[in-house]
Write the structure tokens for this entry.
Amino acid sequence: MSGVCEANGIKIHYLRTGGHKPPLIPLHGLTGSAACWTPLARALEGDYDVVMPDARGHGSSSAPRHGYLYQDHASDVIGLIQALGLAAPVLLGHSMGGLTAAVVASQVGTAIRGVILADPTFLSPRRQREVHASDVIEQHRRLLTASKSDALAQARLRHPHRSSELIELVTDARLRTQISAFAVLTPPNPEYHELVSTICVPILLVIGDQGVVSLETARELQSSNPRLRLEQIPDVGHGI
């Protein structure tokens, strides 16, 4: 089912599997959407009430002109939890959603049950500046002028091993992402070492061997918080 709630001054659209089960909140990355979690939700809905929000500027959620930093996204998630009355949810965040989940977890303490970070955007200050100065926004602007069939064809070439369903979902999400959402790339990001060290619930950090978070960085984070469990998946990149 789908719904909309008002939180943190905006309307947040979400998809939800429902049922009297422990809540799980997956948070997508930049240019994603709630619908991109559909295959995962299908696999987990027997055990969890999967609540999948569209981040601001994405999908069917509000797209304000300003307010796209990580603290804004984190406040949206906290507002969603409160508005829907979700008790002790597990947070699952990928990429932008992973850093958002870490910010939320560092602020709400034991109001959540645990947090899963799937190759979060834990970037060094130098890498943040490089990404911000890149042509990623112009690439997206050009994509928005393409037809959906052309965008799908490009996606199939870039990701030949992905399912047709996921290619469709990811492409549709990209075409619905507002340019304003890219303001989240504005440095500085929240300092991730500090965030992880303050999280007081179980953490699962999942990385690939070709992703954003290196094994060295992951082990540094593990040494800073004994609650962190690390899993590395071989032969995968950021789209873990």
Remarks:
- Residues 65 and 180 are 7 Å apart (CA to CA).
- The longest strand covers residues 10-16.
- The chain has a mean pLDDT of 97.
- The longest helix spans residues 70-84.
